[in-house]
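Reproducibility note. Readers wishing to regenerate the assembly model reported in the main text can use the exact inputs given here. Chain order matters: entities are listed in the order in which they were concatenated for prediction.
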Amino acid sequence: MRDPNNAFHLAIPVRDLDEALEFYVSKLGCHLARRYDDRITLDFFGDQVVCHLSEGYESGPLELYPRHFGVTFKERRDFDDLLYLVNQRDLPLFRGPEPRFKDQVEEHLTVVLQDPSANLLEFKHYRDPRMMY
Amino acid sequence: MRDPNNAFHLAIPVRDLDEALEFYVSKLGCHLARRYDDRITLDFFGDQVVCHLSEGYESGPLELYPRHFGVTFKERRDFDDLLYLVNQRDLPLFRGPEPRFKDQVEEHLTVVLQDPSANLLEFKHYRDPRMMY
Amino acid sequence: MRDPNNAFHLAIPVRDLDEALEFYVSKLGCHLARRYDDRITLDFFGDQVVCHLSEGYESGPLELYPRHFGVTFKERRDFDDLLYLVNQRDLPLFRGPEPRFKDQVEEHLTVVLQDPSANLLEFKHYRDPRMMY
Amino acid sequence: MRDPNNAFHLAIPVRDLDEALEFYVSKLGCHLARRYDDRITLDFFGDQVVCHLSEGYESGPLELYPRHFGVTFKERRDFDDLLYLVNQRDLPLFRGPEPRFKDQVEEHLTVVLQDPSANLLEFKHYRDPRMMY
Amino acid sequence: MRDPNNAFHLAIPVRDLDEALEFYVSKLGCHLARRYDDRITLDFFGDQVVCHLSEGYESGPLELYPRHFGVTFKERRDFDDLLYLVNQRDLPLFRGPEPRFKDQVEEHLTVVLQDPSANLLEFKHYRDPRMMY
Amino acid sequence: MRDPNNAFHLAIPVRDLDEALEFYVSKLGCHLARRYDDRITLDFFGDQVVCHLSEGYESGPLELYPRHFGVTFKERRDFDDLLYLVNQRDLPLFRGPEPRFKDQVEEHLTVVLQDPSANLLEFKHYRDPRMMY
Amino acid sequence: MRDPNNAFHLAIPVRDLDEALEFYVSKLGCHLARRYDDRITLDFFGDQVVCHLSEGYESGPLELYPRHFGVTFKERRDFDDLLYLVNQRDLPLFRGPEPRFKDQVEEHLTVVLQDPSANLLEFKHYRDPRMMY
Amino acid sequence: MRDPNNAFHLAIPVRDLDEALEFYVSKLGCHLARRYDDRITLDFFGDQVVCHLSEGYESGPLELYPRHFGVTFKERRDFDDLLYLVNQRDLPLFRGPEPRFKDQVEEHLTVVLQDPSANLLEFKHYRDPRMMY
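Running the prediction on these inputs yields the following structure tokens for the assembly.
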């Protein structure tokens, strides 16, 4: 169990702040904490994600490895709620939803989304919550 | 407050797994959860960081924006403990420790480390914990 | 102690949504959860405040009673953080900061702010936390 | 998740304190914390509601917007318990119980009660608890 | 640590319900949960105390043993808050405040109050919180 | 919700300490914290019960009112576990198990045990946990 | 309930550190905290187990009593997850899985594993969680 | 942080159950959960220690490695409370109290006690709580 009082902090590049706001807040249901000229800060499922406006932004071909981020939910119900949101609001899927490592202890459900700036977001739920690390 | 049962999940590239293990576990004090041929998974201050071995790894010049990650500690004592560890174990500093946004509500202490694969890690403590988002 | 999983829910009138967003998010540091044409919903110190756009809005003379809302902080440090924010960001004070019920068990610190739509917000800290009800 | 140690604080007008006590404590099951000549303070589902006696009280036609308050329950069971209480004790319904935003992510169950002084109380339960803000 | 979701339940005799209400709610700061013709139920520091009207009530000479009840506070600050309330509101002391078992591991501060029906209430704070059992 | 760090404290008379130990620890499953010549102290479901040896102990006819004590369980499963223990270990029943206030909001399950010194213990589970006060 | 901030600490002998690492981390899913020349320290289900390299290690015939250690899970689901891991990864069973004390209050499920250095690990789940002590 | 609902479980040999009870309960302040003919079970600082009567018990020379057990306290105050108890009740010291790994990140305070059956108990407090694993 992690300390509920701290926050993980992740900074990512985005090509447009309004577009990022639309994706993360209006679609994905995160909360906008602060808006500056060059970035927005988000309460992203209880942690902090900062979207930095990146001048000369250029995204290569999308690949899941080695860079992506997201949330591992302990409860299946939270993963299902996320999937329902993804479907109802037509969020762009990069991969899944699908199971991985079937019949192994590390078995989990995963879905990967892509934001408008080609950042990949993975949400997971493990059969055995001890495997979330 | 975030949910203590979930975990933030971040995947990053590293050029060498042993080197990453040395940095994240032996130096930074994270816990090794799993080791595969192509990656190690870490309990990183209660969240999950996965270090993926990246073939043909090439790092450009180090810049703090737009990509970095880390932890925002609610308690000053936890930030100071991290600084003490950084000093005693000679972890490579990229920036700070230093205050930012002095005399503003967003005022915070920050220190930025760099891992051997040129990933930047920022640890923060805000004067007003409401600003950690 | 209240249940951390639930949220108090308060709906209030505002004359302009952008103005409300500026006050509650950019100034007071609340988080924007959702924006509709006729309202914005806020994560207000962990509870929900909904600002409804009120056509033909007209505010009478400001009086603290019988209507106002806010947060009672258990810890003095949280009240002081709020005061610091109020000062640094020049939020409009309606009353205080000041002590009330001096030398009684109900003694508390209070500060009352006014939002641009003449809603009054009271923040409190009691000497004896049992008195926060 | 909100901080269980703090309390939301709401002050509302009532035309008669005994009548308010009867409604909020004997009917709705809130707890009486303090009674003064001009107000009563309540532990209202873990937060604080203060009923101020309002001289010359006059209520206009009842409208849900823009002013009402209540609780959003994370667990369905808590919402159902509230409904059961409302039915068994014949609390006056203003609207519902009914679903809103059907087939949208914001879908929730809602019931609106009215107290004897024409204050409206809304209790909610969201399909996806992330939408409670 | 005890389970925060349960409640200890204690039923005690009182000779007069209004008098008990005055003592437990108006003076001691407990919350009134329910009132019936023959009893009142209280939120007593988070647990439940029920005061039953006892016809033909007759109290013998007051003795601390073997019957009394109260709360052991883990934090000194909570004990001091209670003492302050006792002094400011002139609650009737039966014994103390005083230390007991000085220089032993079981050392604690204690104060014993008496309610109008001759029930004795003891509040304690131990030097070593492991000794509260 | 009550504070998990504090403990309710109840002192009761018993006619024999070994007999009390047998009942409370070996049968009811409480934990023995301390034993003195004139009393034993118990971790009683997370709160403290002290059994004082009462010289010249004499018990009148057993009546549930006005004196008894016990635990109200939020979860039905905990009440059922207690009932199972009562049956398997043949603890002496004074009343119940039975429902009370059927079809009212205060509806609850109750069972009353008697210890060898004629103290009555009531365990309860409410349909609506808000009614446990 | 135990304090989530502390850790139980157990030191045990092992004949080979790599072998112990393989068993505890790669198989049992514990996390490696630190590695020294003569020991490894583990985050063992939230507590600390230290494996000390024991020169001249010699193990006698395996017996469950009087020495073994492990975890008692409150929730059945956690016990079942452990069993699934044991089966999928072929961990060596010493005894069970099996029920013990059938039809008694102390009834529980148990499974005993043996590590490569002949230490025995028992995992349990009680029908009545009060019996876990 | 560990799960407060589970318990670590450790079984150890003792040569005499009354002697063990005297040491663990009367001296060290643990709680007796259950007593059988061949063992006693203890609530040991929130975890479970079972003392098994070992026929033909024979203890070799006392050595700290590789076998000992105890508790690592996050808060210094809890370690100091334990030391105070050790001094006031004259518990037999095997080593310390003393600091270890001075000026390293792993620096901690430690004290080692021995029970009457030659089991060694180590209590620790780390300068940096992340090092408790």
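We highlight two features of this model. Strands of chain D lie at 7-14, 31-35, 39-44, 47-53, 68-73, 93-100, 108-114, 120-126. Chain D touches chain B at residues 1-3 (CB under 8 Å).
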